[in-house]
Structure formats: structure tokens, C-alpha cells
Structures
1.
Amino acid sequence: MKSVLVPLDGSTHAMAALPVARALAKQHDASLRVLHVGATQLPLQSLVTTLGLTPDDVQGIVLEQTTGDPAERIVQAARDWQSELIVMCTRTHLGHPRGRLGDVAEHVLLHAPCPVVLVRPERGRVPWDLRRIVVPHDGTPGTAAALHSAIELAERSQADLDMLHVPTLDLPDAPDTVTAPLYVDQPQHEWPMWAREFVERTQGLCGHTFSIRPRIFLRRGTPESEILRFTSEREGDLLVLAWHGHLGPNRAKVLKRAFEEAPCPILVLRVDQSDSDETNATRSESDRVSLDPASPEILFDGGLIP
Amino acid sequence: MRSRSEPIAEGPRSSGTREQPKSTSGAAPRWGIAIDGVDLPASLTTDPTWVLVEEGFTLPREHEVESRFAVSNGYVGVRGSLPEGSRLSAPATYVAGVFDTVSNGNPTNSVPELVIAPDWTCLRISVEGSPLTLEAGHIVEHRRVLDLRQGIFWREWRHRDENGRITQLHFLRLASLADRHALAQSLTITPVNYSGTLCVEAVIESNAGASRSPSDPAMVVWRTARSNVSIALVTSGILRAGSDDPISPITVEDDGQIVHRWEWEATLGSTYRLDRIATIYTSRNSKQPDEDAAAHMLRLRDEGVDRLVAAHVEAWQQRWQAADVVIEGDPLAQIALRFAIYHLTSAANPENQAVSIGARALTGPGYKGHVFWDTEIYLLPFFTYTWPAAARAMLCYRYRTLPAARERARQMGYRGALYAWESADTGEDVTPSMVLSPTGEVIRILTGELEHHISADVAYAVWQYWEATGDDDFFRDAGAEIILETARFWASRGQLESDGRYHIRQVIGPDEYHEDVDDNAFTNGMAQWNLERGAETARILAERWPERWQDLARRLDLSDEEIRRWEELANAMYFDVDPDTGLIEQFDGFFDLEYIDLNEFAGRQLPMDVILGRERIQRSQVIKQPDVVLLLYLLWDRFLPRTREACFRYYDPRTGHGSSLSPAIHALMAARLGDTTLALRYLQQAAEIDLGNTMGNTAGGVHIAMLGGLWQAVVFGFAGVHWEPDCLVLDPHLPPRWRRLAFPLQWRQRKLRLDVTAEPEAIAISLEGEPMHVRLADGPATTLIPGKRLQIRRTSGRWEEWQEVPE
């Protein structure tokens, strides 16, 4: 049986992940397994109380508890249960500065055997429904390949899929990257044609033929700012970010900004490093030249790709 | 930029188990394996300067490959898709002039686009019941070769399936240049290390609206939904194994598809060959397309595929004889030019005056097959000077669509003829007027409303054609009317204002980054030229063909007074060259805009309007493509050398080259001005648009106008060809590493062969036809005599005298 894993530490913040996890478990036709890693094993009722679960919360979930190092146990449980997803809060301790990823979440993100959905605590416990998925795509084959599961999720949920490309001044080194065209003879033809090609190449690169029709958006500006601005503007319910697996200085700028400001949960998909060597990954994330951040602009809101 | 489809440096490379073709000079060897005497009905060209090779298989780039490797004959074009398909394969066969608004599955579309005809190329191949595809099993070897010399798309594929069975396949595909209704594909298949059941299914996709002929199982007749054009397609296939009798297919209908199936027990090491021919007719050029297609097929079946292929190869040889450009010392420029000439030749059809060439020719869906000004300014010179009959047919399309151009002018409140910015089969304007965002935001497209220079561009091409060919019949019966009606349009388009000058306001010039501008230099300059030619045309008609003039004058209600008015307006046209600087301002206020140093964006992979944004670019001097510079080239003799140099040096650093049309013209101008290093850089930039990896730009089809620009850059730029009324003028500037540049040209029933060499620095010309004058821009003149090859050498910077030399 497939499962979606939600670690809860008993904090109010942690509970923000639960509505998201519940909806995603439904989408995946998976069981919802709540895991608490405590100092000791608790009686079941105490566990329910400790975690702050209401009778409604308990409906449809499987409660699990273990002891040990929380981060390691969560990763291990996901491995043991072959979880489809881990859904958790970005930080649960008030001591952490706003926006910073908590230690547990960081460890899980770095070591999880499956995609991780991170939910900012500010979201609270309001119900969550997946109607629009925002997928920024830098055009690299690595990102395209990583998007496979996001596309599948969109297909399963019948959610709208908005694919956003924020081109940079230069070109990623990765072979077969597709970005905005260098020549736009007639915009009324070139942009729709380009958008269609962008989607179809993505299909080819991620090995998945879409049964849904994504909308393609091209925006100008700093990728991290534009991605978040766009996600808010489009009222995205899930922001999907492809990630090269590094959180060091000058790495994962978009993801780090998203921990602080994402208006919705973030699905983090690992880029297969065999598709994208370290040099490219570094360059594509930190050294690429952004366009003038002072004047973001909608370049192409191309509508549905037939 | 990287290029995957690139000319091979040597003959086809050896890899693993593939047998090497035996390369010899002169006679091209057979390609691949020939067993039991079974081989494809032609031989691959192995000279690397004539082939474009795509090694391996990179799925995401498939659409680009399909465009580049398209085969076409101006009547029908077929994308270079894999016959067995892949996840990204987009096979398409287009028939010139067949448009519809609801084709290709989009019911809300109101803009006509080239229709995708029923696909005849699909071949499903299976080994012991398992489909053979590039996406399963292991590709031992895979290579696609565009044979430019013969106009054939080749493919060689050696595949090991999951059970270890190795199958070797060779394919060819062509759209006959000798018989434009005929298409062919052949396949040889060899089970290399097994015996077993092979199956090949030739599938005709039966689009909605298709019907089968009750009498002919191999025929599909399909009618477009709104434009109501019937397309009849007949196919015929024969499978052979050695000298054995042909194996007949069984025909089945499978889920709306018509399937011809050959299934047989194949023997290890034996080669089997399948030949398929298709004939295609439409109701646009046939009253009974089904009967014509069937009769044509009968004839071809009698003659056999070998003869069809041989005639096609012969037709291509003739075209190359008339058009090949030889560049020695620069293999990339050489292949780029031949690639350009291949697609230009493939795009044209001298037999059809009802169509022109769309922005992506018949190689892809991009630009919906629409015809723009590029056709006249960028493409037509190639045809005018190497294939006048094709140029004539394209200009006849403009003549046939003149009524639509008149109506367009009338609707917009003008007189005369305003050609549509984008046109399809009828000549009505089909420019999309807006792009709708998903949030409902309407983005207006202004080119259709404001980019009017196209009318002068068409007139220019008519005049150029007439001057170059001396085709009086065309001029008298068609061309003159176009020039008169476009002149009349310009006389109504502007205003004689209080300053005594004729101003044309609210236009878009070729530089489309700046919309709604006043007194665009290109527009005004071309309009002035058009008004003058209108008056001159009236005079010429009156003198040489008075009956025709009277007829036209009556029908168009043209008076002498109106003709005089054209001359007055041309004289009053607002168009100034700054006497101090030699500069021409691109439009009113251009000099006041912000200068942006494009060097700061060196290495960019985005067009400047994307980088700066629409608003800022409109406030800047960054331009999309040559505007003043293009005018200088088109009306070369009207400007002083100082003006040409000053304007090029001023506008070159301000040109963002955001259009594929742009770099080739800068290559041409830089070459004419003697800056061969810059010229070569631009030539390479232009060549890379279709041959490099330009972010999917080529996926929708090749940039046919850019390819025409490449030819012009070499002939009119590097060779420095231009014309005076009765004289060829030459001013060659070869880039340092070019050893030789040679090409043929046609001029007023004459055939010229020009040969420019670097070492020794010399020009040689031979002539067929009447004697004619030639002069060097900075050297002596002579008279060319038919049958004699004249040469002139330059030593120590000085031209010697013309001398006869052996052929």
C-alpha cells in the first residue's frame, strides 16, 4: 500500500502539514501515515493529545510512533514504508528565525528517499485543495526529468498546471536545454510556437507524455522573485521546485526564498545528478545572469497549449 | 552554439558493426549493405560538402530534425519525421496553398493555417511481433543524412532489440522534383543475426473527414472542413526479397486507419526492400483529384520506383547546375549555402501561380504557412537570378491577390493596393489581430494594421524581376498593374503637410521594436521609390504598349494628373540625409532615444526586447533588424558611399538582431563595405539559425527567408554583385580564409558563371547568351562574349586587363 508520511512533533506549527498531506494522500490513493518521533513511546490516547489531533484529524490516518533522532527516523520510516511523499512543516520551533528551514526538515530534505512537500507554518490548519500547480522550469533536462512526478500529480488531481519559465541572460551549459528563443520574427506566431515546443521538449526530456494541457508563462526578472510573485498572482496551491540537492551558500536560491515566502506548499523534486553534473548544477543555480530585476514584465501568457 | 546536425568532416563514419560505404571520388558508392542484390533505388552522396548528417537520436530535438530534413518540391512538403514514430514525432505532409481555419484539431481557430494532409509516411515495423522503435531496445547505430545534391532524405539504423535480435534498416524519402505530385519512400530491412517473422505495415492516417474509395483500397480522399478542398492520396507499395516475386500486402482497416501489411518469414542475412510511392492531388488544381491521383499512380507503377528516383535526381542536378554556390576554404559556409539552396529550391514551384512561399516554406507548421514581405525581399532574388520561372510564379501570386490588396486598402481608407501583412491562399489579411492571455488580457498585434512597407516591397520585387529577366510579358500583363496600384496606395497613405513635405505617419518599419512611428526611413524611402516607379511604369506602358496602357488607365481610372501627382509626392517625400554626418534618421525622433551599449549584453541568449522589456526598448535606440541599412542595400545607387558607411557604422551597434532576417543583411552590407571579418561573423550567425541549436527556433520549420538572405549575403555581399541598367558590376570581398567563391547567375536570358578566387586574386566570368557589359567597381570594364571565359587579375592592389582564359 502506498503511503504519504507526515511527521508531527506535537507543535502547532507542525499541524500545518496535515491538511496538505491528507489531500495529497487522497490524490495518490495512498494511506496517510502520521509519524511521531518522541523520547519515549506514548500510550495511543496520550499520543493523540500530545500531537493535538482532533477526532476529525484522526479520521483516515494511521498513527505511528518511534523514538530516536527525529530526522533520521523520519527518513528511515519513509524508506521502510516506501512512502510516495513526506509532507512536513518547514520549521516547528519558534526559536528559528522566520523563513529558515528547521534542522529536522533540512535533514529530511537532504536525505529523503522520496519527494518532500514543505509547508510553511504560517499556513495554519485551513483545509487545502489542489486546483493549481505552479511549475517553474529553467529549461534544463535535469529539471524536466524531475518534473515527471509533478505532471503525474496534475494528471491525477486534474489540477491546472502553470509552467513558468524565467529566462536568464545566458544559457545553462546543460546540453539540450531549451530556453526562450533568440529570434522572435513575429511574436504572434513565435511565442505560441515556442510555448508548444517548450512543452513538447519537456515531455521528451521527462519521459512522460502529458494528458493535460499546461499553460506556459514566460516572465522576465530575477527567477526567485518572479517565481514567488507568479505563484501568488496565480493563486497556486502547490509550487513545484526541482532541486539539485545542495543548500550551501549561493545554492538553491529559489528554494530558500520559497521557505521564507512561498504562498503555498512546496513540492521539492530532486534533479537526478547523473543528468546534470555538479558544475552545471552550480552554474545554473547561482551564476546565471538574471534580467533586470527592477522591471519584471509579463512576456508571454500563452494560454492553453493545444 | 552547438550543432548536432552538422556536416560530417569526412565520409560517413564507421561505428561498430556497420559496413563502411566504399568511398571513391566521382561515383558515389552504395550506402550500407547490399545482400542478394537488394538495395535502395539510389546511392547516397558521400561528398561531405553535400550532406547534412544527424548522428544518433536525441528525442527532445526531434522537431528541429524534422524541419531540417524535410523533403519538398514546392507543391508538397514532408517533414523528416521517423516513419515508425517516437513520442515526439510530428509527421506532417503539407500541400502548398491548402489552408483551413479548423484544421489540425482546433475548432476555435479563425486564422487559416496550412493543413496537415493525411500522413502517408508511417511505417510500423515489427520483429517477431515486437515493434521496432528507437525508444525500446538498443540503438547500435542511427544516422539521418540529408543528401542536398540529390534531394533525398536518407536514414540508416541498426537496432538490437531486447532479445538480442539485430535488424539493419536503410530508408530513403523524397518529394519528386521532376514530378511534383509524386512522393516516394523506400526501405531495406535485413535480419542480421536471426531468422523470423518480419512485419511492415504502411499506415495511412485517416484524418476526420477522410473517405476511402470503394474501388481503390489504397486511396484516401479527404476534404478540409471549412475551405472545402479535397485532397486525394493514393499509395502503392511493393516488397521484394532478392529476385523472388514481390510479396503483396494485405489491406486492413484498423481503427480508422488504412493499413497495408506485409508479413513474411525472413531469413538471416537476407535483405528485403519495400518501395512505396504516393501520388497526391487536390481540388485546387484538379477537377477530379481522385481520378488524377489514381491515373498518375498507374503510370508510376508501370514505370517503377527506380525511374521515379532517377528522374528526381536528374531534376536536382539541373537545379544545382543553375544555382550551386561553391565556397572553398570554409566548409561551414559551404554547407550552409547548400543547405539554403536545397530548401529554397524545395520551396518553389514554377508551375503554380496561385501560391507563394510561407515563412517556414513547407517544412513545418510555424507561421501557419503565411506569406510575409520576406518572400519578396529576402527570398525572391535567389529565384529571380537563378530560377526566373519560379520567381515569376511567386510574383503571379501577388498579381492574383491584387484584388484582395485593393480591398484591404479600401477598407483602411486608402486607395490603390495594400498587400496584407500576412496572407494565405486568398491574399486577404490573416494576421492574428491579438494574442489572448489566459487571464483574458488582450495583446494587440499592430503589424497587420501598421506595417505597410510590404506594398512597396512587392513592387520592388516586381521591378527587380523585370529588370533582371526582361520578362516583358509579365511586366505588361501583371507586374505593371501591381506597381501602379501600390504607387496609388502610397499617394493616399501620407499627407502633404504645412512644411511642404509628404509625411507618412503611424507606421511600423522593418524594425518592429518601434511601433506607430512617423516617417520611418525605410517606409518613406521605399514609398518614394514606388511612386517614382509608378510614374515610370505609366510612361513605359504608354510608350511601349499603348493598348495595354489605355486598358489599364481606363480600368483603374488613372489620369495623367494622378501620375504627375505621384512624382510630386515622391519629390516632396520626407526623407533626409544629414549633410554633416551622412546619417539617415530611422524615424522621427529616433536620434533622441536612449543609446544602449549592446556590448554589455555580449553572449546573451535572448532577444533584446525580452531582456529590456517592451517599454524600455521602445524608448531606446536598440532595433530589431536592419531598417535604414536594408534600405541602403535595396536602393544602393541612391546613396553616396559616405552615407552607406556612416549609416551602417551607426546602426550596426544598435541592431539587436532579434529577427532571423537580420544577420544576413548585416553580413551583406559589411561585405560590401569591405569589412569581411564582421561580414563572416554575421554570415555564421545567420547560418546557425537553422543549423545550430537555437532553442527550438527551427522546430516549426526552417527559416526560409533567412536562407534566402544567406544567398544574397554571399552573392550580393561577398561577391559584390550588383546591377546597373545594362551592366553587371562586381566588387568582391572574400573573407581571409575563403579560397574561392563561384556561382551561376541568370540575367536577361543570359547564363553567367562567376568565379572569384583569392590566390591569385582574380575574377573569371563565362557567358551563355547575348554579349553584355561587366565592370569592376574599382577596375576596368569589358564586354562578355558567349563561349569565352574572361578573367581579370589583381596584383599589388591593381586590377590588370581582362583576358580570355581557357574554360
2.
Amino acid sequence: MIRHYLKLIWNRRRSNVLVAVEIFFSFLVVFAVVATAVYYASNFRRPLGYSIEDVWVVSIDSNQSRSPWSERDESAIIETRQQLHLAIGELPEVRAIAECFTVPYGNGRWGNVAKIGGREVHYSRNGVTDGFAEVFGLSLVQGRWFSREDDAAGFEPVVINEKLAALAFGAGDPVGKVFPADEPGEAQKEQRVVGVIRDFRQDGELALPEGYMLIRVRPGDSFVVSALGNIVLKLRPGTTVAFEEGLVKRMRAVAKDWSFEVQPAVQMREQKLRDGLMPLIAGGVIAGFLMLMVASGLTGVVWQSVTQRTREIGLRRAKGATVPDIRRQIVGELAVVTTLAVLPGALIVAQLPILGAVQGVTAGVFASSLVISALCIYLLTLASAWYPSRMSTKVSPAEALHYE
Amino acid sequence: MFRSYLKIAIKVLLRRKFFTVVSLFGISFTLVVLMVATAILDHMLAPYPPEVNQGRTVAITRAAMFGERTMWQSSPGFRLLDRYARDLPGAERMSVFTSGTQAYAYPNGSKVNLSLKRTDGEFWRILQFEFIEGAPYTTEDVESASMVAVVTRTTRERLLLGKTAVGLTAEVDGQRFRVVGVVEDVPRLRLIPFAEMWAPYTTAKSDSYKAELLGGFNAIVLARDRAAIPGMQEELRSRLARAELPDPKRLSTLVAPLESTFEALARTNIRSERSQSEQLWLLMVGGALLFMLLPAVNLINLNVSRIMERASEIGVRKAFGASSRTLVGQFIVENLVLTGIGAVTGSVASVVVLKAISVSGVIPYAELHLNLRILVYGIALAGFFGVFSGVLPAWRMSRLHPVQALKGAAR
């Protein structure tokens, strides 16, 4: 039967080529939107690794130069920071307090590349103080979290996520192992893994999972001066925004010339999600209208061709074709044209991962996006053929044969 | 003859209403998307107040220091601008200001988040803000580090300053400022002038910025005329090539491009001498064409169908001696009538969509509107669309053999 359809399509090839071209471009548009949505959805389902419930973030700017060569009084900055830490920690609303370099849902990132067994492993790092695990409710899969006991250790204790453990150490037990140094030969304390967490997706739900390392720092390290820009707080449940003004006043009393920015982590999450989803929503709305346009356009085209072929249809019915037969033929012809358009579209799209144009998108995400977009297109074209196919059998065979 | 074409066109459009509505929807929707995109670009880049001198203003918004292995890129620092970018040949005025930070205020227990720029006095002379009360602070205010500020209309409201704010004070970021002027809101996408509050740069909490080559500042330079700009760029480049660097072993080269807002947007590599603005133009035009592809194919399909329905009419006209060219002309006129109507409905819909975007606050302080220039672009585009989508169907129609056409056997 399909061969018969192909013959009919070939006989009307000129208009069918144009229809196929339209379906081909529609497929590309739908695929772009669907692939983005599927990518985000598959990321969204993965574990985040931390909780931001009742967490507030205070970004600190000492208004001092950050460049490595400029002169500044480091000890004064460190002292002020320690006073700040104490002054905030005393507040009755504060359950836990920690300092860190970058924060979840923030814009900062400390990317790194390690050479492991000849491969380059890209991962992110963060420098954090001991309270960090409590603030973000981190749970360890293996080993332990670092603490004050590590003060005397001859190494730098680090906690890594499962993904980085797998990247760096394969299937072996990572706890107690030394993490490969960035640049061999550089004078640096060795970094020893003391624990493994499930994950820590710093950029939030929409981001891809990546290797992540938490490095222990102490508020007195000179690293603090240039890098530790954030204090994170876990507050008593039910603390309101009114707390913020008191907090800022208290901090200003300690450090008059510094600037502070206080935000509940939930708010940062909202902002990040909005920034991430906005382009998808705008693209989705435009694609939706485009598809509405294509669907109504195709309806018009099929309708016209059905009207034009009234005599042919009448002849078929006179020779014994039933109403469902005719309807099936109209819909089937468009389905074949759709297939002829979707196949090259899918072939072109499939080149993207082969060329390496999309990074971090798994084969599963790619394949399911292809299937979903193809289904959408079939649904769209079948819906367009449905109404004209009903119109095609409205005219009785005898009248149809007379039709001019 | 043209009048009879018009009459036929309107009759045909009314005969198959479904086709007409679908075609109009496609044309209008395409126009709305393109006009909204153009309006947003216009809103960002056209010379509207406060950037009235935009044609001869260039800015330094990015700088970098690099060596063989490392690179440090950020906004330029005060020292770079103050020491190397002043008194360029052909420059009329020059202003230095911070790239903008978030400052917090707590009037009556509520929290207000403001974008704050600290500027010099020249800032107010290059950019022409619309003052609704008071006046800008002056170079003397900046030199004496007076705690004064200019705020926007919305900021005046949010800081609960009442109807007239001049003379009142407000505490922002732990500092108390006296308001000297209130200006109309500035769109968020106007990167150079945008802020919600401005204060002298000397009010900064620490003066460590004075020694920095990189970080925290921007500058704009008003040239005497456009022709002076290349000379200024050349001079700045050669001055930076001779600049004293803090760590010449590791970071040996300093660059800071002097360019227009569009060139800054188009720049992908800070080290190249020229911005990639031609590529950005091509990219935008290419993107628009790519977007128009699907609506165009859709319209062509509808037109082909519509024409084939009229095969017998065409057969009659051909049999009576109408040339192919006449028929093509007639069909293009018909299509232009259709796209013309589409252009009108598209423009009306664009006005509604732009208003909705402005009101929704998706783009802060945006006041998007259609102006004559965008309208002309839109109409030109619709005309192009009409001819483009009409030519192929018309050509195919004109090639019909009259005998076949009369029998209605068109394929």
C-alpha cells in the first residue's frame, strides 16, 4: 500500500516537495525546543546534593583591592572577618554558619583542570570552612567531613563528589587517596580525600552534573583575604526578612567600610531558574505559534488537494473503496510525505553529536528528543489531514464523478 | 488595469476565507516577531536620551592583561582610565564612572536593592538625562567628595522620599546621601547610563581603587566628530603599549578597546584590534532570514494551492491571449495586497505585544515602542515577503498549458 501511496505522491511531486520542505523545517524548529526542554528536565530529576531550606547568603566586599600584587593590610582584613564571624554566630536565629568561596546559585565559579593518567579532567572547586556541611545539610556517602582535628594534619583535607571520585580513581575506594596536583612540581600541600558526598551541583537544578571538590580552609588562611567572599547561614525555621536589617546593622557596626549583600538562597534559586528558563519559554512560545501556522497552512493545502481530486476519489469509491479507505489514503499520503521530510531532518540532527557540536548532552537525552520531536511532527501533520480527509468523503460518488 | 487587479484580489481573498485568515496569521506573526526583536535592539542601541551624542561617543568597558600563559580580563580600573585615557587627541569630553554595584537600603524596615554607579561630574555633561527635579552634582562636588546623589523617579518612590526629594537624605549601603536631583528612569538595557542611583566616585568607602589598572570602572569619551575616533583608538593603543605594568614577567601586555556600544557587544576577542561588528550584523540578518524561511515556505504552499484552484480562470485568460508576464504581475499584486493587510495587522499586534512586554517588567524599565524607522523596516520586510512568496507560485501558474488548465488538470 505504501508503494501505491509513493506512486500517488510522485505523480504530484511538485506540490509534495514544497510540503515536505515545510515539514522538514518544522521538524528542525520542534527539535531545537524539545531537545532543550528534555535536557533541562533530565538534569532537573538528578539529585542536587544539598538543601537550601532556611539558608541565607551574605556576600562580603571589603572594598579593598583584590589584585595579587597590590599592597593591603591582610591581617586587619582577617581580624575583621573573624569578628564578623563571631558577631553573626551569636545571633539567636543562626543555627549554623560557614564561609565559602562560591555559593550555590551564585555567579562565581572556580573551575579547574587536573591531569589524571594522561587525561584532562575538568571539575569545579570550592574553598569552605568546617560549618559548610551543616549549613547545606550535606550527607556523606563514604569517609568523613573535615573538622578542627584536621588543623594539625600534614595535608589539605578535601571532600569530593561521587562523579569526581569516579573520574579520578575509577571504581577504587577514594578515601585516603591523594588527589593529583594541578601542576606537578609546584610547592603545594598534597590534597588528600577524606570523604565522598553524593553530589554538589553548584549551578542548581538545570545544570549538568560535574566533578566537584570541597577544600577545607580556615578563617585565618591568607587565601581568605582574596577569595572567601561569602558567609552562609542556616537560620531557625520561620525567620522573616526583618532579620536581614538587624543582621546588616550588626555587620556594619563591626566593619564600617565594607559592603554587604544579604539574600535568602531561595531567592537566588528563583533568579537562576528564571534566567535559565526564560530563553526556553520565549523560544517555546515562538515555536508554538510557528507550529500553529504550519498546521493551519497544511490543513489548507491538503483541503485544496482533496477538492481538486474529487473526481479521482469518486472513481475510487465507485470501484468499491469504503469511506475509511479514502480517509486512510488522505492521511496515509501525508504521513508518507512527513516521513520523507523527517528522515533527512533526523539524519542532519544526528550529525550534531558526531561533530561534537553539543557537549555534555547524553545519547539518551538526544535520542528521546529525536523521538519526541518526530512524534510531535506526526501528530501535527495527522491533525492537519484529519479535517480535509473527512471533507473528501462528503460528496457522493455519483456527484463526484460529475464534479468540475 | 491595476484597479481591476485590486478588485479581483479582494474578491479572491473573500472567496476562500480560510486561506486568507491562515495566510494573514502567518504574515502577521512573522512580522510581530521581527518587529519586536528590532524594537528591542532599537531600545538598546539607538541614540535616545540620555545617550543623545551616541554617534560620536565611544566607551572603554573591558580591559585585559595577558602574558604567555595567563590572562586576566575585567572592566578597566581607575588608574588605567585616569592615567592613559585622558586628553586623547580629538576628544571633547571624557567621563570615568564605576561599572555599577548593587547597594541596599532599608527604608522603614523594607528592603530596597539599587543599582548604584559612582561617577564624575563630566558624566552629566556627556549624557543628557531628563531631570524632573533638581540638577546633577558638579565636578566640584566630586572633588570635595560631597555625599550627594541623583536618583531615578522609581528610586525616589522606593526609598519613600515623597513627591519632592531634593534636599532630603537617604541611607544607602550604610552611607547617608543628600539627594540633589531626580531623573526619569533609565532602561536596564542602556548599559552605559543605566543605574538607579548615582553618586560621586570619591564617596567610595575605600580609595584603593585609585591604584588599580583593572577592575570596577568604565569610561566614555565624546569625540569632536566621528572622524576623530580612529585617531583616538590608535593613540590609546600606543599609550597602553608603553604602560607600566605591575608584573611584567607574567602579564606583559595591557589592552583596553575604545569602541561604540554595538562594537562592544560584537567583540568576541579582546585582543583583536577590530571588533567583530560586521559578523554580528551578518549573524542578525542571517538569523532573521532563517526565521522567515518557515513562514515563507508556508505562504508559498498556500499560494500554490490557491492558484491551482483557479486553473480554469487562468486557462480562460491564457486562451484569450494574456501573456505569462501579465499573469505573474497580477498574482504578485494580489499577494502584495494580502501581505499589505498582514503588515497592518502585524503592526497593530506588535504595538500590543511591545506594550505587554513593557508592562510585564521582563526587561526592567523598558519602554518599547514602534517608531517610524521600525515601521518602515517592517513594511519593507512585508513587501519582500509578498514578492518572494508570490513569485514561485505565479511562475508555475503562468506555465500552465491553456488547454490543460481549462480542463482543470493542473498538478
